[in-house]
Amino acid sequence: MCGIIGYMGKEDCIPQLLHALKIVEYRGYDSAGISCLDHGKLITIKTKGKIAKLETLLQHHPYHATIGIGHTRWATHGKPSTRNAHPHTYGHWSIIHNGIIENAHILKQECPEPFSSQTDSEVIAHLLEKNNHLRGIDCFRKVISQLQGTYAIAGLHEGEESMYVAKYKNPLYIAQNNESIMISSDLAVFYGKFYSYYCLEDHEIAMIQENSITFYNQQGKSIAKQSLTLQNVPQTISKGIYPYYMEKEIHEIPYVTQSTWQQFVEDENLLHNIPWQNYTCIHFIACGTAYHAGQMGAIYFEKYAHIPCKSSIASEFLYENTLFFPKTLYILISQSGETADTLSCCEKIKSHQCDTLAIVNVPHSRLSQIATYVLHTLCGPEMSVASTKVYTAQLTLLYLLATHIHIEQSIPIEQVQSILAFTDSITPIPSSFLPKIVSYKKILFVGKGEDYITAKEASLKFKEITYTHCLALPCGELKHGSLALIDADSLVIVICTKPNMIDKINTCMEEIKARNGHIWLVTNENKKKFAPFDAILSYPNWSTPLSAVTSIIPLQLLAYQTAVAKGLNPDQPRNLAKSVTVE
Ligand code: M6R
User: Most exposed of 176, 217, 346, 500 (fewest Cβ within 10 Å)?
Assistant: First the structure.
């Protein structure tokens, strides 16, 4: 959470910072700001609100600077406001921070001057100023050594053409070309400009000066670091023909399903590098949408691979009295590979000498570095806070693993092609549905088995971007309490993709109708087989056992179109951020 950016080069830094900030804006959009050195003088401009507001503000300030830092914030300590926005500038120092300084309240007692924000981060600027008598890097290192918690930090020092950066647990990357050096929380900023980058490790510090980066370890010794090649570089990150990333990303589902699958066709060792025969149990761990993918993974592995499975929400797993067995493979699923709860689970599992498999979308993310084994969903950057294409790629990958780990059989390429052939079948929800859905006071999503997991994911998506209170339940559970909610103001969205479940689903639909509830049915089965309903939502008719991929699409679109109809920005829902890097 929070995006940090820095630029040092030959060009004006402000357009560079603004462009990069827009790319990392998904990490938080409560406030934004930049600091730069204009002829050696420290200037800070910041505002509550999104980057667009900062951009307008900067048009009134014709600064000329070639070195600067920028920040986009997701509030933890102190509400979204201009004074709580980063950078925090104090005396000769200006800093940006992603993370939480857990001992900020103690450190603040060392700093006599009043604080101008409610943040935990401002104390870093005060401590730097307090130690300003030390040389730049010594001052920075001393302050960093006092911090407890998590951080990616960048600092500028007035009168000095240097930038200092440090990280612990939160990501920080540095890239260099002939023209410039940039720092960023996300590699996506480097696409199209840089061919290699450095991944700053925990406790490392870097000092960036004109054309040079010097790395230091925790003891302050300068160290050599290998640069890494920037792979799979998409040309640009753009919305293309779509008004929002979310719509674009839903339409990319056939492609990402295909590319995620295709990697195993091209290299079957990806499957066989993991010693599946060693494990008698699989435990899936993740958060939010990725947790739903894990729950679906547990269904697939029990059904196709005949291995007992368990699934846990990462933040719960951390505090459970889990019995660890070396014959259990712990599969951690994460789009960002940065989610703090999931990372902590990985560390806890490893401390019990058990194996972990990370399924991640962001290459080189921290989870992919610390897990025993790694597999990637090949979706490219997912920019919308609401996860769509990555969820379906996670399902695809888990299905593929479950169906193929125990059977010595090659990956059927024709299934992939059949999915790709249906790219055009992703069509919008008819607009007549939208005024109706916004009129319901209660919305329930129900299903059985795999369809219940789809109901949970659909409900999460709907509440996340439309701010509507909704609930997901297994069909059979309705009569054990929640049926009391059903009346003429309720909409129940019933998902049924399995023909053998239709009888049970019909019983549930009759019970809802008997209480005057409204029913929208999501199915690809013959509608005549179902009890009365009010409307039907169809989905792409891909002939694949991956019905969980196809049936979530109309539900993602329903959430998306409802949000847009309500005048909301589905890419940046309130109170949320894409990467949740705090526990
Ligand atoms: O990056 P991760 O997959 O670890 O993120 C986990 C959740 O925060 C994420 O899936 C969240 O639930 C989505 N915003 C839902 O659309």
Answer: 500
